[in-house]
Design brief:
Elements: H1 4-18, H2 26-38, H3 43-48, H4 62-77, H5 84-96, H6 101-110, H7 121-132
Helix pairs in contact: 1-2, 1-4, 4-5, 5-6, 6-7
Length: 133
């Protein structure tokens, strides 16, 4: 389980990602709040993250990085549309987490094959495994 600092960083990164196109849609907010509840972050703390500066912490383990990347892919697609800015941003975030560029690109390509562009976790894991071998 991530530390409080890591939880706030996860949410802060996701909120910043959602703000990339200068607005947070209701569906994005709902998704973000559901992640906050999963992480056991209070509503008050969650709301403070929209204006607070939080230290960014890259998840330590590979599974935590893949989970965060998957959350971001889900967030990008929750409103059923992506723009070039979001795709570029998610790619850059993946690189900063140390994920293989080819795997990131493959996930961003295959997501279009799934309903609502929701890449199943086992597919995402399989893609990244193949790039580490």
């Amino acid at each position: 389980m991530p530390t409080k600092k890591e939880k706030l960083s996860i949410l802060s990164e996701m909120i910043a990602f959602a703000k990339v196109n200068n607005e947070i849609k209701e569906s994005e907010y709902d998704f973000l709040f559901s992640v906050a509840k999963q992480l056991e972050v209070s509503k008050k703390t969650f709301h403070s993250l929209f204006t607070a500066n939080v230290e960014h912490v890259i998840p330590k383990s590979q599974p935590e990085r893949l989970l965060q990347f998957h959350r971001l892919v889900l967030l990008m697609n929750v409103d059923d549309k992506q723009d070039i800015i979001e795709v570029k941003r998610i790619y850059d975030i993946g690189l900063k987490m140390g994920l293989p560029p080819g795997a990131i690109q493959q996930v961003l390509s295959v997501m279009h094959k799934y309903p609502n562009k929701v890449v199943p976790p086992e597919v995402l894991i399989s893609i990244f495994k193949s790039h580490y071998n």
